Write the structure tokens for this entry.
Amino acid sequence: MSLTKRIAAEFIGTFWLVLGGCGSAVLAAGFPDVGIGLLGVALAFGLTVLTMAFAIGHISGCHLNPAVSLGLWAGGRFKGADLLPYIAAQVAGAVVAALILYQIASGQDGYAGGLASNGYGEHSPGGYSYMSGLLIEVVMTFMFLIIILGSTDERAPKGLAPVAIGLGLTLIHLISIPVTNTSVNPARSTGPALIEGGIALKQLWFFWVMPIIGALLAGFAYKWLGKAEK
């Protein structure tokens, strides 16, 4: 598949992840009487990845996440030459989704301007500290990449990787939404932060650095862990 088609697929997939995941948080989580709550938001993020893995996995690999692309590179599964085009497409998809979500959400009277941005300290949903945010983002991204690398290993059961990855992301959100609103994805963090500005934008660097650290550690770890023994 050509690089142009692959990065187009990454744009569409990341667009869907941010629109579906952040959209569920902004539009549906606290809707009066029938809001979907934290569980619904976690499931929405998992469903975006699950659906896109089936829709575009055969085209681009369905990374949807700069940390995933870097983790796959560290694990020997992805070419370094394709990293920048993939990451650019992922960020672009996230930004366009955040812009559309803002246009939808701002159509409601009393809209306060939030787009489910990520944060720590005073910007953490549960008031968790910088160190809590650091640990949750590094560890959750590490485990996400282990799930991805393991379930897509040629020795793993065929056809079930999208389910494992989607459910894995759901579980990650169930654990970490109260701490940082769950990033594990620099592109997902970038879209809302650029539109919101303020503290979300000031803390954006954190949600690039920590997920990438976790992803690289997982890539190198699985390269050793998954190596067949003679």
In short: The longest helix spans residues 3-28. The two ends are 34 Å apart (CA to CA).
